[in-house]
Amino acid sequence: MNYPVNPYKLGAGHRPPYLAGRQTEKQEFLKLLDQEVILENFIITGLRGLGKTVLLDELKPYAVQKNWLWIGNDLSETVSVSENNLAIRIITDLSIITSRMSLHRGTYQKPGFTNETIELEDPVDYQFLLKLYENTPGLVSDKLKVVLDFVYEILPETNKKIIFAYDEAQNLSDNAGENEYPLSVLLDIFQSIQKKGIPFMLVFVGLPTLLPKLVDARTYSERMFRVVVLSSLNEEESKEAVLKPLHMTEYKVLPNDKRTSYL
Questions:
Q1: 28-47 confidence digits (pLDDT tens)
Q2: Which of 26, 41, 182, 258 shows the smallest number of beta carbons within 10 Å?
Q3: How many CA within 13 A on the CB side of residue 50?
Q4: CA dihedral 79, 85, 86, 91 (to 10 degrees)
Q5: According to the model, what pLDDT value does residue 1 have?
Q6: Taking the CA atoms of the chain, what radius of gyration do you get in angstroms?
Q7: Is 156 helix (H, G, I), strand (E, B) or coil?
Q8: How far is CA 52 from the centre of its chain?
Q9: CB neighbours of 180 closer than 8 A, spacing ≥ 6?
């Protein structure tokens, strides 16, 4: 017996065929994209299964349309092991953007009887940023501020805004027992560079445990973020979420093996 393919995507974090609702949350995010000086960052929170990750993915095109660069990742528990692990996470993510750039460091004349020269360029890749971080004196926060300042300076004028989007952000925390404070360092760094007018914005997605962690780490973090709490869809939105995917698909019998499938 042939069975049609399920038109719904029930896996964790998979974008559904039709994303119902969440217009209010999108509008809140769009307002933040127009900030000339970053006064507020963005948090999406709520219980599991409400579509936080899907909404995060949905926001990226809006940011790109407004000339924001977008980097990010899932924050695993290993990032909270040490401040240095946090630094490696940020440097790795930044290198995705900067590896397309290079710094001119002069010219080299070819050997022999020729006047030809070769332009010498250093790619601003992961190794470059890591070396800059390691060679900067001071604490982890001092080193990361230098790296972020440097990246801002080399970005082209048309793309000097970056969103750092981190899912599963509730995994990030301080570890006082080991004298490691990665969450506090992250908040301190972004508050500092934003006060300088550098348009780098944090977007956190996480469970409700995220907010108390932020406040415990830095009391001023309440003023750093605009928070949207996802709840269940209303009745009309729930109907759309169920019915729209059915209207968007049609049966087709594949010619090779005669299986019935949805397109």
A1: 999 999 999 999 999 999 98
A2: 258
A3: 19
A4: -130
A5: 47
A6: 23
A7: coil
A8: 13
A9: 80, 81, 82, 83, 174
Left, alpha or beta for 72 (phi > 0: left; psi -120 to 50: alpha)? left
Distance separating alpha carbons of residues 165 and 54, to the nearest angstrom = 13
CATH, range 23-262: 3.40.50.300
Q: Is the pTM of this model over 0.90?
A: no
Report the sign of the C-alpha dihedral through residues 140, 144, 146, 147, in that order: positive
CB neighbourhood size of 92 (10 A): 14
DSSP per-residue string spanning 34-86: T-SS---EEEEE--TTS-HHHHHHHHHHHHHHTTEEEEEEE--GGGGG-HHHH
Within 13 Å and on the Cβ side, how many CA atoms surround 131?
7
Q: Which two tokens stand for residue 73?
A: 């990742």
Is residue 220 within 8 Å of residue 37, measured between CB atoms? no
Q: How many CA atoms lie within 13 A of 88 on its CB side?
A: 9
